[in-house]
From TrEMBL:
UniProt GO MF annotations: diaminopimelate epimerase activity
Catalytic site positions: C84 (proton donor), C84, C239 (proton acceptor)
Uppermost EC category: isomerase
The keyword Secreted is assigned to this record: no
EC number: 5.1.1.7
Species of origin: Botrimarina mediterranea
Pathway(s) served: Amino-acid biosynthesis; L-lysine biosynthesis via DAP pathway; DL-2,6-diaminopimelate from LL-2,6-diaminopimelate: step 1/1
Subcellular localization: Cytoplasm
Purpose: Catalyzes the stereoinversion of LL-2,6-diaminopimelate (L,L-DAP) to meso-diaminopimelate (meso-DAP), a precursor of L-lysine and an essential component of the bacterial peptidoglycan.
UniProt-recorded name of the protein: Diaminopimelate epimerase
Length: 296
């Protein structure tokens, strides 16, 4: 089975195209968890390829969909995630570079979300470099995140108090198709904070499906520093859906403007929470590292 190793701001993925032939037959109609074991094996950094996630690109099989492709993304522990911002940009790049669509625009479905994407810039050989992805509207209803905490007076979880082993913290909790718990801190988030509080909140009983945890320092009204403890992966160098959640949380709590650049450990992403349609749009790089073959 051929695969492509890719990354977005250092958030790295094993990407497998299952668009036709045996792979498409094996996975397109199969239950989501059919690829969980393969994902865990390939993501393993000692016994596999090593990655923060495993991505399958499938043909769209829903009749009523505007998408031509489906993305399924799995964490290194084999769990499926309905959203993954950095992987989506990698998928758009791979599809563009292999001539699977014409022009600069493509729509990819992940779970029930249609994500329109656009190639913003290409290298001299015509390969996609920067990609814009519209992740749609943020989700605030606690049951839909899902989060067991009750909404505050504003009807959302912008100032939720989460009690954990190390104390109590105020967080903004929302979904971008996957759950995020955003914690603002006064100083650059430390290793100790991320690796101690991250796993405590990931598995906190308030989150029945666990959560991703973002630690964020505001640097300016249009610039933030983010570190992420990811559900099913541990700390990663970047999280695209997390950056979208951070941009929304920062606006909701009056910390930044709607357009902001987020500085992640592995690179930068430009974010816009658009006023006109409430959509969150992320722009950033996608990079191919190497291709390989996996014996099945
Ligand atoms: N790094 C990703 C998110 C990957 C999925 C996440 N760990 C989850 O389980 O929700 C991104 O760039 O969005």
């Amino acid at each position: 089975m051929r695969f492509t190793k890719m990354h977005g701001c250092g958030n790295d993925y094993v990407v497998v195209e299952a668009l036709r032939g045996g792979l498409a037959e094996r996975y397109a109609a199969a239950p989501i968890d059919a690829a969980s074991g393969l994902a865990a094996s390939m993501c393993n950094r000692h016994y596999g390829v090593g990655a923060d996630g495993f991505v399958l690109i499938l043909p769209e099989t829903r009749d009523d969909s505007d998408a031509a492709f489906e993305m399924r993304m799995y964490n290194p522990d084999g769990s499926y995630s309905a959203m993954c911002g950095n992987a989506l940009r990698c998928v758009a790049k791979r599809l563009a570079d292999t001539g699977e669509f014409d022009g600069d625009a493509v729509v990819v479905r992940t779970a029930d979300t249609l994500v329109p994407m656009r190639i913003i810039s290409r290298d001299p050989a015509g390969r996609a470099e920067r990609i814009e992805a519209d992740l749609g509207e943020p989700i605030f209803a606690p049951d839909s995140i899902p989060c067991r905490l009750s909404a505050g007076p504003e009807g959302d979880l912008r100032s939720a108090v989460i009690e954990h082993a190390g104390g109590a913290r105020t967080a903004t909790v929302l979904s971008m198709g996957n759950p995020h718990c955003v914690l603002f801190v006064d100083e650059s988030p430390s290793d100790e904070l991320v690796t101690t509080v991250g796993p405590q909140i990931e598995t906190h009983p308030a989150f029945p499906q666990r959560t991703n945890v973002e630690f964020v320092q505001v640097l300016a009204p249009n610039r933030l520093r983010q570190r992420t403890w990811e559900r099913g992966a541990g700390e990663t160098l970047a999280c695209g859906s997390g950056a979208c959640a951070v941009a929304v949380a920062a606006v909701l709590t009056g910390r930044t403007e709607r357009a902001a650049t987020i500085q992640l450990s592995g690179g930068e992403l430009d974010l816009l929470w658009r006023e006109s349609d409430n959509h969150v749009v992320m722009t950033g790089p996608a990079v191919e590292v190497f291709t390989g073959e996996w014996s099945m």
